[in-house]
Amino acid sequence: MGKVYSELNDQLRELIESQHLFFVATAPTSPEGHINLSPKGLDSFAVLDAKTVAYLDLVGSGIETVSHLRENGRICIMFCTFNGAPKIVRLYGRGRVIEPQDAAWQSLAPKFPEYLGARSIVIVDLERVADSCGWGVPRYEYLGERSQLVDYCEQKGAEHLAEYKQKNNGASIDGLPGLRAVMP
C-alpha cells in the first residue's frame, strides 16, 4: 500500500539516490496548454534536505518545464525502480528556476558534475511525498548512461550552445517565457 510522507526519510532518499532515471511533469495554467513529461538521466539529481530537492537542467530542444515553473511553479518528479523491490516515489512541490547568471547558481552548481550543456538548476520545495507499490512496472537492466548529449555539447562548444539556447529556449511551445538569459 502507498504511503504519504511529510518529508523525505532516509529510506526514500536512499531509493531516490540509487536510481539512474527520473521523470519530471509540469503543466501550464491554461487548460489548452500542453502538459509536459520529461525523462531525466545522467548524474543530475540531488537531495538538498528532507524537504528540498534539485536537478540540473541540461540543454534540449524545448523549455517546457522552465516555462511552466515560471508561470505557476507546479511540478511532480517521479522515480520508479526497475530492479529490486518494486517501488514508485512521487515528489510533489513548487519549483523555481536558477540560471547561471543568478546569485544562487554559485552555491548550487557544485552539487552536480560540470556539464557544458547545463542551462538551469530546478529547485523543488516539497509539499507532498508519496510512494506506491510499483508492481506493474516491468524490470529492466541498467546498462549505462548515454554519451550523446555530453558529446554533442563538447563537440559544438559554448558559443554554439548559447546560439542554440537563444533560438530554442526563449519560449515554450505554448508561447510562455523560457530562459531569462535568452529572452528578447
Shape: globular
In terms of DSSP E residues, the strand content is 25-35%
The SS-based structural class is alpha+beta
Number of helices in the DSSP assignment: 4
CATH level 1 class label: Mainly Beta
Give the total of beta strands.
8
- H-E order: EHEEEEHEEHEH
| Poorly predicted parts | none
This entry's quaternary arrangement is single chain
CATH topology: Pnp Oxidase, Chain A
CATH architecture: Roll
Instruction: Write out the CATH superfamily name.
Output: Electron Transport, Fmn-binding Protein, Chain A
Integer tally of domains:
1
Q: What this model shows, in words?
A:
It contains four helices and eight strands. The chain has one domain (3-178): Electron Transport, Fmn-binding Protein, Chain A (Pnp Oxidase, Chain A, Roll), CATH 2.30.110.10. The longest helix is centred in the C-terminal third of the chain and has 21 residues, at 148-168. Strand 4 (45-49) and strand 5 form a beta hairpin. The chain starts with a strand and ends in a 16-residue tail after the last helix. Strands 1, 2, 3, 4, 5, 6, 7 and 8 form an eight-stranded antiparallel β-sheet that branches. The model has no long low-confidence stretch (mean pLDDT 96). The chain has 184 residues and is of the alpha+beta class.
Helix and strand arrangement:
Blueprint: E1 3-5, H1 10-17, E2 22-26, E3 36-40, E4 45-49, E5 52-58, H2 64-71, E6 74-80, E7 88-98, H3 105-108, E8 118-132, H4 148-168
Antiparallel strand pairs: 1-8, 2-3, 2-6, 4-5, 5-8, 6-7, 7-8
